[in-house]
Amino acid sequence: MYDIIVVGAGPAGLTAALYALRANKKVLVFEAKAPGGQILNASKVENYPGIKCISGFDYANDLYNQVKDLGCEFKFETVIRIDENNVVYTNNPNNDDTYKAKAIILAVGVENRKLNIPGEIEFLGKGVSYCATCDGNFYKGKEVAVVGGGNTALEDAVYLSDIASKVYIIHRRDEFKGEDMYLSELKKMPNVEFILNSNVTRINGTDTLESIDITNNDGKETNLKVSGLFVAVGRAPNNEVFTNLVDLNAQGYFESEDGLHTKQKGVYIAGDARVKTLRQLTTAVSDGSIAATVAIREMREN
């Protein structure tokens, strides 16, 4: 029996674990992939108070080690169900697949949204990537494209401009949602070109990606020869397995009256997978600290 089980080892989940461990609680964290969540993809974090600049990888690694050094237990397994008794079931066939806790915090985060076009799955890892900082160096001196209009797309383009010979930024609208700071920087770069009011409609190649088809809003189709395509069109939650515990809105995010409690006693939500106004590192760690603090207080009261 654990005091607290945290599902997800992104900033929200690791912060929740940190606060619980500092309260002398026995904590288990489940993570299906790598600790750190989406912040791992950030080449630079420059808007976290008190830290002028740090890579997303270094931040995540520091937080993971901080939690691990306090005695947190980690299981790199996928949670597939939580029952009415707060028993957690995972996909690991080598154990009895059950873990129980007095409180559970769902901090499952979000996943990269797909383009859902021909060739996207076939060329994943062969030219298609969702992480510029992870895979950018494979395209040194080559021509690449970034698709998207938010901060992630613009940050990816800035990062890639120092590596690739040419960076195309493809966006379906004529204006970007990302911050002007990134946009202004990109407009000064001689190896960056904007392709606006356009969508990537097909990814082509043999063994690896060789070109992409682009269709503009007037229906004109063009073929662009690139070696890599970096997809940054937003993120989506993967919350369906928890619908017995908490309602989802139309977009699939956790919906809760106070943004914390679920329909089941002892189960809480935190991080980007819930309905919220702002999804940033600062709000993720805030969610995690609040969820752990409330969970501990309500465990004590009950």
Number of helices: 6
The first-level CATH class name of the largest domain: Alpha Beta
Tell me the total number of β-strands: 19
Number of domains: 2
Mean residue pLDDT: 94
Can you tell me the CATH superfamily of the largest domain?
Answer: FAD/NAD(P)-binding domain
Which topology of the largest domain does CATH recognise?
A: FAD/NAD(P)-binding domain
Structural class: alpha/beta
The geometry reads as elongated
Uncertain regions spanning at least 5 consecutive residues = none
Radius of gyration: 21 Å
Strand content: 25-35%
In CATH, the architecture of the largest domain is 3-Layer(bba) Sandwich
Largest sheet: 7 strands, mixed
Helix content: 10-25%
Q: Note the run of SSEs as H and E.
A: EHEHEEEEEEHEHEHEEEEEEEEEH
End-to-end C-alpha gap: 17 Å
What would you say about this model in short?
Helices cover 23% and strands 28% of the residues. The chain has helices at residues 11-22, 56-69, 132-135, 151-161, 180-187, 281-301, and strands at 2-7, 27-30, 73-75, 79-82, 87-90, 98-106, 110-112, 128-129, 143-147, 166-170, 192-195, 198-205, 209-216, 221-225, 228-231, 235-237, 247-248, 254-255, 267-269.
